[in-house]
Design goal:
Elements lengths: L5 E3 L23 E5 L3 H15 L3 E5 L2 H11 L4 E5 L1 E2 L2 E2 L2 H9 L5 E5 L4 H10 L3 E4 L4 H12 L4 E3 L9 H13 L4 H11 L4 H8 L3 H15 L4 H10 L7
Parallel strand pairs: 2-3, 2-4, 4-7, 7-8
Antiparallel strand pairs: 1-9, 5-6
């Protein structure tokens, strides 16, 4: 497997329209790290690398997005998060959108083997501090994380944003709208994107069909969509549930 290096993404003032993160903790002050990845070996290897490279740190792990959310509620916010793109209960930008709602000021790093430009753009617009390849060697990984924890926006070498200016701003605004959805509304939107009818959603979530309709009305209002098809298009545009 080849090793990819990382580049600093443009700062907000240089023309990038994605949501720009403010300078955060220095890398030395990041003491509590949460790794969200469903692969035990990946979690163990990454945790060991962090402990060795950054000294004695508290490294927590979660195997799903739901487990990460529960852990944050129970044990408090970490200083930094490393988030896998594909989890058992979340694919695409959904993980970042969900965690950003809980952790507005915590640097979240997306890690994945998927280096498609559109997916990277969606993750950065959703609020990621950076996006790194799973194929990175130890030194490059540590360097990328250190830079992110010091406030830099880091993306893979060769990454070229799909759009600039107003389109990037629109994508970031769309991610902010999705972040206003409750967990139940996010589940319903995911099922809508899978083509499920209200009756099917009602059965799958064990809630009344009238409740489903109420949630859908709220979803449409929050994301500024008039029809289900438009809601699906917006979710696909944000790469919310499927990395493609």
């Amino acid at each position: 497997m080849t090793t990819a290096s990382q580049n600093a993404a443009p700062e907000q003032g240089s023309g990038s329209g994605v949501a720009s993160a403010q300078p955060r903790l220095s890398a030395d002050r990041v003491k509590d790290i949460l790794i969200v990845d469903d692969h035990p070996l990946m979690c163990d290897a990454l945790a060991l690398t962090l402990k060795i490279s950054f000294g004695r740190k508290t490294v927590r792990t979660a195997r799903s997005l739901a487990a990460a959310v529960d852990q944050i509620r129970t044990h408090g916010a970490p200083d930094a998060v490393i988030l896998d793109l594909n989890l058992p209960d979340a694919r695409g930008a959904e993980g970042i959108v969900t965690l950003r709602r809980q952790l507005p000021d915590v640097p979240i790093t997306m890690i994945s083997a998927d280096l498609e430009n559109a997916m990277i753009s969606a993750a950065m617009a959703a609020g990621a501090q950076g996006y790194i390849a799973k194929s990175l060697g130890r030194e490059a990984l540590v360097d990328s994380l250190r830079r992110m924890w010091e406030g830099e926006r880091v993306t893979p070498e060769g990454y070229e944003p799909e759009a600039g200016g107003s389109e990037d701003d629109a994508r970031a605004e769309l991610a902010r709208r999705f972040a206003t959805l409750t967990p139940q509304q996010m589940k319903i939107l995911r099922l809508i994107c899978q083509g499920k009818a209200n009756k099917e959603i009602s059965y799958e979530l064990s809630i009344a069909e009238a409740t489903v309709k109420t949630h859908i009305t709220a979803i449409m209002s929050k994301i500024n969509a008039r029809r289900r098809t438009q809601a699906v298009l917006l979710a696909n545009s944000a790469r919310l549930f499927d990395p493609g």
